[in-house]
């Protein structure tokens, strides 16, 4: 296990302009103004908050996992990570993190990838991509499946070994740990609070997350 | 394997092909040290497209080599890596845009350099994809064939020099009709100070369909299920 670095936030939840608990299996979409701070709290531990970001004015300028990890020269996200868009813009910066490491290689679960990963009869089960598609369709503005790209899995631990294996390790998160992001430009945040029941990463028990926003 | 078509693609150039099901694209690194940025979509329905996170997590790998398949976001096998002399191809590093190429190599305008101008993979992906009606929203995370990025225990990424030798080749067998778009720009983490992208040789081969004992089909149970979902498209 590598070093994990933690940074706590000084922001007071009592002064947040928004405070919402998002149940597992639900989606959330919200526009953030430049400079606003979003905190995502893993209320019970090892829950995956599957998250995408977009420019508020251009769907095609969107979170890019490859640009983000290459720009910082490291595959794990934590305090100081700039979330880079496909057009090279800084969508947001991680400004506090009491979990220490977040994944952006593993992507989201989908009905079809669940069939591939677990068994062909898993197709009817709820999954993050369905949540993303419903949230984008409801949000409107012409969003479509092609706008769902490779997301961040906040609170998930997916280490890469030196010989190039990808493992889904035990979580490094716990109840009450959080990550905070400051918007670097007007952005849309899209979150699926992961409903996955097939993966031991969340002890087969999806749980709520809390979302707070400060000016 | 009958060669249906072949050509040499210079460094810093782009190319695309609608690969017919069960034909194979063989890419050969002529000089060693080539990099091939690569994206793929189902020809008929490009919303069904290469998904590297699904590809990697289903096969428990952070590199690509023989036996692996490139999966779509709909659980299909787009392409199978049926042969590979390099053993490690990069699915993590992405590609550079015009700003990054300018910062790395300095100015390389067409006005000055003509055909030796400095190209960037971002623009070449957009141009070549646009020929097939695809736009920015259709772009996906790309593979970099012939390049290797090492990951240390802290997660730091570093370019692995000398990964691909002269004559190294990779075979990609299409498991459905697949649109491939590629370019030969340098890897974005290649520390070489000079703009010197390398050429590759491209060949389209007529190959047999994968049988029940196919190596890529049987690489993992996940691959077998991806093949099953793919073959359902052709019932």
Which shape of chain B, going by the Cα principal axes? globular
- CA-atom Rg of chain A in angstroms: 16 Å
The N- to C-terminal Cα distance of chain B equals 26 Å
Q: Give the spatial strand order of the biggest sheet of chain A.
A: 1-11-3-9-7-6
Please mark out the parts of chain B with pLDDT under 50 across 5 or more consecutive residues, or reply none: none
* Structural class computed from helices and strand pairing of chain B: alpha+beta
Q: Name the pair of protein chains with the most residues at their interface, and give those residue counts.
A: A-B, 49 and 50 residues
Question: How many helices of chain B in DSSP terms?
Answer: 5
User: For the residues shown, what is the average pLDDT of chain B?
Assistant: 97
List how many beta strands of chain B DSSP finds: 12
Strand order of the largest sheet of chain B: 1-12-3-10-6-5
Biggest sheet of chain B, open or closed, and with what strands and sense?
A: 6 strands, antiparallel
Global outline of chain A:
globular
Strand content of chain B: 25-35%
Number of strands of chain A: 11
Could you give the topology of this structure?
The complex is a heterodimer of chains A (215) and B (235).
Chain A: E1 18-22, E2 27-32, E3 37-42, E4 49-55, E5 58-62, H1 65-72, E6 82-84, E7 90-97, H2 111-117, H3 128-139, E8 152-154, E9 177-183, E10 187-193, E11 209-214
Antiparallel strand pairs in A: 1-11, 2-10, 3-9, 3-11, 4-5, 4-8, 4-10, 6-7, 7-9
Chain B: E1 2-9, E2 14-19, E3 23-29, E4 36-42, H1 52-59, E5 69-71, E6 77-84, H2 98-105, H3 110-113, H4 121-130, E7 143-145, E8 149-151, E9 157-159, E10 169-174, E11 178-183, E12 200-206, H5 221-232
Antiparallel strand pairs in B: 1-12, 2-11, 3-10, 3-12, 4-7, 4-11, 5-6, 6-10, 8-9
Keywords:
heterodimer; A: 215 residues; alpha+beta; six-stranded antiparallel beta sheet; five-stranded antiparallel beta sheet; 11 strands; 29% strand; globular; B: 235 residues; four-stranded antiparallel beta sheet; 5 helices
